[in-house]
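name: query_chain
kind: protein
chains: 1
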Amino acid sequence: RVLVGQVFCEPPRCSSLRAPAVSVQLVAACMEEFKAWLRGSGFWWDKDAIKLGCSVDEGSGSGAPRVGVRARRRLEIGEVVARIPTAACLTCGDCTHSASVLELQRSLGEREWLATLGFALMLERCEDDVVTAVAAAGGERAVPSSSPWAPYLAVLPAQEPNVVLLWSDEQRRHLAGTDVEQALRDERAAARAEWDEHVGPAVAKLKGAGAACAGGCTFDKYLASRSVVSSRAFTINPAVGVGLVPIADLFNHRTGGHHVHLTDLDDTPTQATQQSLRDSPLAMDGDARDGENQFMCIKVVQPVDEGDEVLNTYGELGNAKLLCSYGFAQSDNPADHITIGVPALRAAAAMCGVSGAQITARLAWCEISGVCDDESTFHLSVRAVPSDALLLVLWTLATTDVRFDALRQATVACDEGTSLSSVKAETLACFVSIAESQEGGLKEESGLRILSETLRRRRAMYAAVPDAWYDSEISGAWKSSISILLSSEKQIILTCEKYLKERMGSDEGTGQNRKRKVDDDNVSEPEASIDVFSLFD
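structure:
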């Protein structure tokens, strides 16, 4: 469900379609049944304007065709091409086992929508599995599903195949040094904790109550359902929350230059976005106030020529987020960035010769003063210009005691009632001004060397993408994603290194008066501080 040429659609969840090779005819058969369900459930789409669920290329690797939406004619800005009833969406409050799901939601909190909606989808699927098993045991060829969303479930993949959480150990090895590596560790730990502490006990409670579907619920099935939710869920409205939205999730994504967005009928700006829900999907532009609006619509925001694929956007997301949540990366992604953490700066400072005692003391001051703490991160974007906040931390780590004392003695006066964010902004601006007034300014060379060393160490961790892959079924999608991710991160780093060299006025790297090439295959190692291990005292 992704950008053209990147990742290919997995087979729908029909058991007959789980084989590695999936024909276009089989996918089309499930899609036609799904469309009939849409028509009977109050959905509408302009059949003269768009074609739903069509193959947008022939597929590769797994043999599964990649499906999406194409324009049957030229689409103009402002057109509404589909209408979606909110009551027909699969949500925590509207699913077969809503009582159990809502109980889990109360236990976890509404912000943990990924766990609760993943639980809801798993139960919905296991309910269908029980019905199918009973029918098979009785010799019946067909039996009505117990899930109202059965035709929709049939066109969903069993799992989102290319999200990083489900990669093999060998595949994940190639993420070393990338933003995705840390995000993956956090995500896997979160999923396991959700299951052990909340979802697993909820399943056990259902078993105790005699719910047949609970017998088929496992951690692996939870992970699979969670991956589908992660890649397909939308914020429906503040009253309903997050859910799976048929039709809307057929549109593939592009960061920048997308053609449509999901909105309410009044096209009112939403209040429920990623800023208000933790990592909540940002592909809806609407505000259905307390259920007042019963429909959402797909509205054209950029013209589309006849025959072209119609693309939505899931938000201005970098490649690390796209790969973790949606299973693909986008070439030339304008929202891409890399993340630099304080621990990486700490290690690089030591490698540049800053004493462990100084690093510890300076970072302690940063935390007390609200500049940063050990969990803080800084972004370097495609433009690769370091922020003032990052430059201030670098300056603080590397500058002399005399200059640092001038900063440490500063006080920031704010008017009573000033918001916390404003106080932080004013404090940062004051500190930046003081550092800028010192000899060498905020971009003092010794501080820039720490950033240069941070980037050098990161590049050295990157793994090479293999020319061949042992599993031909996944080679195309996986190699494309990892190649784009690594290429994009390296380009950001190299651009920033060029900026740092220009600022430092020489070709010297992070080593003391030693040159190095900005080249992946020929990087010299700087000398570490003899006091480096005092960092861990």
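note: The mean pLDDT is 80.
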